[in-house]
Structure formats: structure tokens, C-alpha cells
């Protein structure tokens, strides 16, 4: 009886394991044949596979056949899709709103339409250029992942490398006559450092400025709009500035002329002003007969004044903190000074002293209040020390007198 | 002329003394105090520890009354009023600092006083009642510390109180109700401040003054305990000093030195130093995540750490409950030591009692050090 029970128990244990056998013969064979980097191994990380699609859903064929020849001979067998037909092949499902709604309702279904408007799509469909990117060039073939999946080639952190596969390859890009320094420049830019070094997903990757399926370089006139997607206030101020119209009329790239495009470094106050290395002097000089030169000078003076007051306030506050004084109110006000400095620098994009000066003056007034309040705390610190010294002297004197009295009575 | 002046002053003193004495009979009190003597030996300095604790309690009372003038209990006003005290009120920062420093030093000296009494077996007959009232005073001092910690209603005090009151919930059967009574509800809220405030400024002081009065009366009636070794000494081999004025003057000298130390600490480290600190910080926010490190006050650290180190279950008992039961049993033995130590009553030293005391002290020290090192 015990033996029968043991056999039954073992059988119950093995039933779930036996049920895990794979009925997809494509995988059964390919997993045996291929090394770890082969499609059958990669496919387990593919979002399509994870959603329940199998090999035959893209490649066609009979998955229950035991022999490759039998698989190929089935009527719906596709094999490897033609490179030029890949966009239409993917769009078969991805442009079908009803079908996509069942699997991923949040995903747009206009990828193919956008792709056709892109430089990539135009060259692929128009010139049958097989070197341009199609769906699999960016999304991979068997490891397709959504942009949120960390292993995905289209995840923001991986995207610069994905684009750079072609765009940083000098030899590959030679016939197109465009620069191949973008990846290098972006990697060293403030955006690249934020995204790639600090994993700050709020920082832009290539697609945030160029688009993804409809990838195109931003035009001169659309540049402010593209940058304005994130830097909205700066864009708004710039569009109301005297520069906006002048740049448009003269085809000057708006943000790029001062900040560059891929190699955007952290802006500094030295960019403004009437002396080197201010970039204002690239266009404006003392004898150009416009007010631009004087405005650049005034803007710099305003910023410098605020920075000086901010520095003094911070220094005095730091000293009060180091002395152990309670500085919560001062620190709170100092944050407002920081905010004023940010706002003043932001308002530089209006290129109008009337917009910058009030912000700077408000910041200066607050910074001065912080300095005065902190200085009072430092004075209070020294007052406490003096008070302590007097109290200690008095108490010590009393203690000595009492000690002498004790000595006297104990003699 | 100087002699005439001295004579006049002397007459004035005598007249004043006689005027008071005819009404209050203070001469009898002075005669009583003058007849009192205090043993003088190698460990006489231990006699001043109780006096220092008393002095620090008086500082607590004085500074506490001053703080009470501006402190406003309540979730919406407690933090703001303490901030007002330390930033706006003249010398408010000093009063708060003195209150906090004297609170910590009072607990420290109360512990030192208790351990010296324990290891010198001064609790032996006829001073059992003095020991019991002393333990009660220490317990109340800890309750003062616990209830006062929450009153500024800042981030650290809020979460520490939540942990502390939560531990009461582990007590079987009555734990949940006990926790609700302490908190004034399921959670630590403004109602908890109200309770802790009432406890801190009314209930505990009333109990404390009662016990302290008894403690002092017992000491006055029985005098200072003599060392065990004196039992075999001849009367002429024993040395004494007069209680009045000698011992009282010496006590006053120690108080002055303590006042000087207190002033130095309060001015140089107004927010405390090292593990003994009480920065006001941020206002308590029940919805904010708890700070990375929640520590009780240093004098609760040994118990906190020991409970933390216990496994989830000891045999079939829940770890925390087991720990509290052990602490309860240990505390009971400690309290009843005058009754349990039969040898001390016969003026003999018990090695077992000394070993027990040493284990308790080492355990408290080790757990406290580990508690701070681990974090």
C-alpha cells in the first residue's frame, strides 16, 4: 500500500513538469541547433513572443511538422521577409487598429504612415535604398521590445547607440554626405550626460528632437518649437524677442546658433555680454549701429550683480549655519534667491533688459535680506559667546569663594 | 569705626534671625542639621550624585515653566510654537537648550546614582524604602523623557513615538488598548500631543514631587549609608563631616560646577552633540516616509536594540513579547534587590548580587554601543 501511495505521489509531482513540453517544433529544433545568440534564444525576450505570438505568426509554415522540408512546403510559409517589404510586413498588424487594440491599446497605429514621410522611408520606398533604416534596423528582429523595456534597442538609454550604429559609421554614411559626429557630440553634451550617465529619462534622446518613425532633422524655423517642447518658457520668451523675427528672415537656426545642436553644453553667464568669450559678440559689435551690443552689456551687468549678491548672501548664510545657528527662515528665503537667479537667467531669452532687470532687482533685494538676517545671527552667536564667558566667570568666582569658605571652616 | 559698623551688621543679622526664629523655629532645624553627620571615606563623592540629580531636576522645573509660557500643544501649533521659542523669544533658544541638556544629564546622573547605591549595597536595611522611591523616581524620569520627546512635533519625535508606543501594543491582551490609550487613538496624532503634554507638565511632576519628597525625607531621617566595610571598624576609626554646613556647602559647590558645565553645553551645543541631540528639523508629517534611521533617546537604546536583535520567535513566544517579559522580570529583580540580598542586611557583600549588577551594566553598555554602531 505504501509503495502504491509513493508512486501516486511521484506521479502527481511530475504531472505539471510533463505538461510544460513545447508544442512549437520550430523552437524545439532551433533551440538545439543554434548557439545562445541565435533567434530561438533571443525570442523569449521579444515582446511579441511574450504576448503569445509564435514563429509561424511572422514566418508562416506548419509548426507541428517534424522536418524542415515539410515546414517549407506548407502553403503559408514566408521564411525571411524581403528587407524592402519589412515596413508593410510589420504594418500588417501594427496599422490594424482593431487588432492592436486587443494586444496593446496604447500603441499608435500610424507608424507606417509616419515612416513614409521620413527620410528613411522616402529613400527605402522611393530609391529602393536597402542601407536606410527600416523597422528591424531600430527595433531588432527577434528581440523587439517596447521603449520602456530596459533591454530594448529603442529604450531612451539605448537609443543613441541604436541610431549611432549607422549614423556614427563614417564609411557607411559616406555616400549620404552628412556628419557622423552626432553620437560623440551628444554623448558629451549636457543632454547625453544626463541620459547616459545619470540615467535621467527626462533628458532627450535622438527621437525626442528628430521624431522616431517620421525621423527628420528639425528645420531652421521649427528648431525653437522642438527645443520648446521641454524648454517652454525659454521658447516663449524667445519668440517674443527681437531675435525671433530677425533669425527667421535671415534663416538663422534659432536655439542652435547660441547653444549648438548635438553638443549642447551647460550654459553659463559668460555666454552673455559685450566682451569675449560672450557669444553675443559673434553678431553684435560696438559699431554695428544697433542697440543689441548695449543690451548684451546691460544683461550681463544685471546677471553679474545678482550673482554677486547671491554669493555674498550664501557665504554669510553658510557662516551662520557653520556656527550652529538656527537658519530655517534664512535658508527658505535663500531658496527664493536661487529661484530669482534661475528666472533671471531664463529671461535672458527675451533679450530685453526690461524683462531681465525687474527679476534681477527682486533677487538682489531678497539676497540682501538673507545677508542681513544671517549677519544678525552671526552677531547673535558672538553675543552668546560673550554672555557665556561672563556667566562662566561669575559662577567660577562664586565656586572659588565657596571652596575657600569650605577650606576655612574645615581647618 | 569699622568695629562699630561690624557690630551694627551683626546686631541686624541677630535681630532678623530672632524675628524669623520666633515665628518658624528655624533654630531647632539648624540644630537638627548641625547634629547630622556624613561618613567620610574613599567613595564619599558618590554622595553628591543624588544632589546633582536634584539640582538638574530643579533646572528642569524652572526652564519647563518658562517654556510653558510660549509652548502651545497641538498638531497645528506645537512645532510652530517651539520654532517661535528658539527663533523669536529672547533667550528662548537658551531655555530650550538648558531644558534638553538638563533632562539628559538628569537621567544620566539618576542612573549613576542608582548604580553607585547598588554596588555599595546602600539599599540594605533600613534603606529599602529609599531604594524603592529612588527606582520610582528613575522610572518617572524616563517617562518625562519619553513624553517630552514628542512635544516639539518634529519628524524624528513623531516616528520615534510611533515606534515607542507601538511596542506597547505587543503586550498580550491589554496591548492594543494600552497603545490606544497612550496615543489617544489608533495613530499618533494631535490627540497624542495633548496626552503627552498633560502627562509631562501635570501628572508626572505631581507624582515626581511626591516620590522625591518621600525620598528626601527618608534620607534626612536615616542619614547617608555607611560603607559595608565600616561594620567591623571601631568608632574611633570612622571619619565624619557635619551635614551643616560642611556637606551642604560642598553640595552647593558641586551644584555650581554643574551649573557651569550646563551653561557651557547649552550655549556651545544648543542642539546637542553626537547621539544626544534635539535639532528641531522638519515638522512632523504623518504621510511622509519615515526617516532612514529612527532612534529612541540614548537611555532607551539598550532596550530598543535588544528587542531588535531578538528573532521573530523564541520557542513558541513572539520575540518582542519574550524580550519585554525578560525586561519585566529583570526590572522586578532589580527593584526587589533589598529584599533578595539577605547578605547585605548582615553587612556582608554578596558576590551574586555584584555579578548580577555587573551583567546588567555590561548588557546596557554593550546594547547601547551596538545600537549606535549598527546604524
What can you tell me about this protein's structure?
The complex is a heterodimer of chains A (411) and B (375). By secondary structure, chain A is an all-alpha fold. Mean pLDDT of chain A is 89; it is low at 9-21. In chain A, helix 14 (182-188) packs across helix 15 (190-197) and helix 21 runs parallel beside helix 23 (353-410). In chain A, 61% of the residues lie in helices and 0% in strands. Chain A has 23 helices and no strands. Chain B has 15 helices and 6 strands. In chain B, the strands form 3 sheets. In chain B, strands 1-2 form a two-stranded antiparallel ribbon. Chain B is globular, with a radius of gyration of 24 Å. In chain B, helix 6 (128-150) packs antiparallel against helix 9. With 375 residues, chain B is mainly α. In chain B, a hairpin with a 2-residue loop joins strand 5 (313-314) and strand 6. Classes of the chains: A mainly alpha (411), B mainly alpha (375). The A-B interface holds A 324, 326, 328-329, 384-385, 387-388, 391-392, 395-396, 398-399, 402-403, 405-406, 409-410 and B 83, 86-87, 93-94, 241, 245-246, 249-250, 252-253, 256-257, 259-260, 263-264, 267-271, 280.
Q: Topology, please?
A:
The complex is a heterodimer of chains A (411) and B (375).
Chain A: H1 2-18, H2 25-33, H3 39-42, H4 47-50, H5 56-59, H6 68-73, H7 86-94, H8 97-103, H9 111-117, H10 119-127, H11 135-139, H12 159-167, H13 170-173, H14 182-188, H15 190-197, H16 206-210, H17 223-228, H18 232-239, H19 242-249, H20 256-259, H21 292-322, H22 328-347, H23 353-410
Helix pairs in contact in A: 9-10, 12-14, 14-15, 21-22, 21-23, 22-23
Chain B: H1 2-24, H2 26-35, E1 37-39, H3 47-68, H4 78-87, H5 92-119, H6 128-150, H7 155-168, H8 175-183, H9 190-222, E2 240-242, H10 243-268, E3 272-273, E4 276-277, H11 301-309, E5 313-314, E6 317-318, H12 319-335, H13 337-340, H14 342-345, H15 351-374
Antiparallel strand pairs in B: 1-2, 3-4, 5-6
Amino acid at each position: 500500500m505504501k509503495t502504491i501511495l509513493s508512486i501516486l505521489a511521484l506521479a502527481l509531482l511530475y504531472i505539471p513538469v510533463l505538461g510544460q513540453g513545447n508544442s512549437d517544433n520550430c523552437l524545439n529544433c532551433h533551440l538545439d541547433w543554434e548557439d545562445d545568440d541565435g533567434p530561438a534564444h533571443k525570442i523569449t525576450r521579444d515582446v511579441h513572443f511574450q504576448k503569445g505570438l509564435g514563429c509561424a505568426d511572422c514566418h508562416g509554415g506548419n509548426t507541428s511538422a517534424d522536418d524542415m522540408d515539410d515546414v517549407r512546403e506548407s502553403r503559408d510559409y514566408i521564411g525571411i521577409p524581403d528587407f524592402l517589404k519589412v515596413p508593410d510586413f510589420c504594418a500588417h498588424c501594427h496599422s490594424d487598429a482593431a487588432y492592436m487594440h486587443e494586444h496593446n491599446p496604447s500603441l499608435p497605429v500610424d507608424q507606417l504612415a509616419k515612416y513614409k514621410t521620413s527620410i528613411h522611408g522616402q529613400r527605402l520606398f522611393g530609391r529602393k535604398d536597402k542601407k536606410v533604416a527600416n523597422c528591424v534596423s531600430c527595433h531588432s528582429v527577434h528581440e523587439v521590445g517596447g521603449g520602456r523595456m530596459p533591454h530594448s534597442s529603442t529604450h531612451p538609454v539605448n537609443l543613441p547607440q541604436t541610431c549611432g550604429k549607422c549614423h556614427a559609421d563614417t564609411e557607411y554614411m559616406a555616400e549620404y554626405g552628412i556628419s557622423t559626429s552626432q553620437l560623440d557630440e551628444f554623448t558629451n553634451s549636457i543632454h547625453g550626460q544626463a541620459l547616459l550617465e545619470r540615467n535621467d529619462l527626462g533628458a532627450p534622446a535622438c527621437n525626442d528632437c528628430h521624431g522616431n518613425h517620421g525621423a527628420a532633422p528639425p528645420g531652421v524655423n521649427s528648431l525653437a518649437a522642438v527645443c520648446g517642447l521641454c524648454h517652454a518658457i525659454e521658447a516663449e520668451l524667445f519668440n517674443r524677442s527681437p531675435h525671433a523675427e530677425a533669425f527667421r528672415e535671415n534663416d538663422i537656426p534659432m536655439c542652435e546658433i547660441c547653444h549648438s545642436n548635438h553638443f549642447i553644453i551647460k550654459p553659463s553667464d559668460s555666454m552673455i555680454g559685450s566682451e569675449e568669450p560672450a557669444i553675443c559678440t559673434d553678431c553684435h559689435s560696438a559699431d554695428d549701429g544697433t542697440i543689441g551690443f548695449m543690451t548684451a552689456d546691460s544683461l550681463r551687468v544685471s546677471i553679474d550683480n545678482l550673482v554677486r549678491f547671491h554669493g555674498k548672501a550664501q557665504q554669510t548664510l553658510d557662516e551662520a549655519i557653520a556656527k550652529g545657528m538656527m537658519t530655517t527662515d534664512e535658508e527658505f528665503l535663500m531658496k527664493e534667491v536661487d529661484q530669482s537667479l534661475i528666472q533671471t537667467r531664463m529671461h535672458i531669452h527675451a533679450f530685453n533688459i526690461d524683462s531681465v532687470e525687474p527679476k534681477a532687482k527682486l533677487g538682489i533685494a531678497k539676497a540682501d535680506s538673507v545677508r542681513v538676517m544671517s549677519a544678525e545671527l552671526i552677531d547673535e552667536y558672538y553675543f552668546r559667546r560673550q554672555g557665556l564667558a561672563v556667566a562662566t566667570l561669575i559662577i567660577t568666582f562664586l565656586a572659588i569663594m565657596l571652596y575657600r569658605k569650605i577650606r576655612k571652616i574645615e581647618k | 569705626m569699622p568695629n562699630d559698623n561690624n557690630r551694627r551688621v551683626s546686631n541686624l543679622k541677630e535681630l532678623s534671625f530672632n524675628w524669623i526664629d520666633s515665628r518658624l523655629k528655624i533654630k531647632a532645624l539648624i540644630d537638627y542639621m548641625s547634629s547630622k553627620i556624613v561618613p567620610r571615606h574613599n567613595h564619599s563623592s558618590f554622595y553628591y550624585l543624588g544632589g546633582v540629580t536634584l539640582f538638574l531636576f530643579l533646572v528642569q522645573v524652572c526652564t519647563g515653566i518658562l517654556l510653558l509660557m510660549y509652548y502651545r500643544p497641538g498638531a497645528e501649533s506645537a512645532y510652530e510654537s517651539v520654532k517661535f521659542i528658539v527663533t523669536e523669544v529672547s533667550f528662548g533658544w537658551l531655555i530650550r537648550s538648558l531644558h534638553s541638556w538638563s533632562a539628559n544629564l538628569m537621567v544620566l546622573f539618576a542612573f549613576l546614582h542608582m548604580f553607585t547605591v547598588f554596588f555599595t549595597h546602600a539599599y540594605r536595611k533600613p534603606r529599602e524604602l529609599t531604594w524603592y522611591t529612588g527606582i520610582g523616581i528613575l522610572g518617572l524620569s524616563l517617562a518625562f523623557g519619553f513624553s517630552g520627546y514628542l512635544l516639539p512635533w518634529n519628524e524624528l519625535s513623531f516616528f520615534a513615538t510611533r515606534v515607542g508606543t507601538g511596542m506597547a501594543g505587543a503586550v498580550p491582551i491589554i496591548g492594543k488598548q494600552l497603545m490606544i490609550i497612550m496615543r489617544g487613538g489608533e495613530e499618533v496624532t494631535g490627540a497624542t500631543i495633548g496626552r503627552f503634554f498633560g502627562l509631562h507638565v501635570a501628572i508626572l511632576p505631581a507624582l515626581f514631587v511626591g516620590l522625591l519628597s518621600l525620598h528626601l525625607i527618608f534620607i534626612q531621617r536615616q542619614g547617608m549609608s555607611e560603607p559595608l566595610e565600616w561594620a567591623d571598624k571601631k568608632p574611633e576609626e570612622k571619619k565624619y563631616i557635619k551635614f551643616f554646613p560642611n556637606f551642604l556647602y560642598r553640595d552647593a559647590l558641586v551644584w555650581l560646577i554643574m551649573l557651569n558645565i550646563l551653561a557651557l553645553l547649552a550655549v556651545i551645543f544648543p542642539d546637542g552633540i553626537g547621539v544626544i541631540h534635539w535639532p528641531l528639523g522638519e515638522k512632523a508629517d504623518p504621510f511622509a516616509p519615515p526617516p532612514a534611521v529612527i532612534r529612541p533617546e540614548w537611555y532607551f537604546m539598550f532596550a530598543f536594540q535588544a528587542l531588535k536583535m531578538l528573532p521573530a520567535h523564541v520557542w513558541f513566544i513572539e520575540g518582542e513579547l519574550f524580550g519585554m517579559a525578560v525586561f519585566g522580570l529583570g526590572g522586578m529583580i532589580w527593584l526587589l534587590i533589598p529584599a533578595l540580598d539577605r547578605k547585605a542586611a548582615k553587612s556582608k557583600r554578596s558576590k551574586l548580587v555584584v555579578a548580577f549588577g555587573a551583567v546588567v551594566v555590561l548588557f546596557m553598555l554593550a546594547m547601547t554601543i551596538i545600537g549606535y554602531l549598527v546604524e
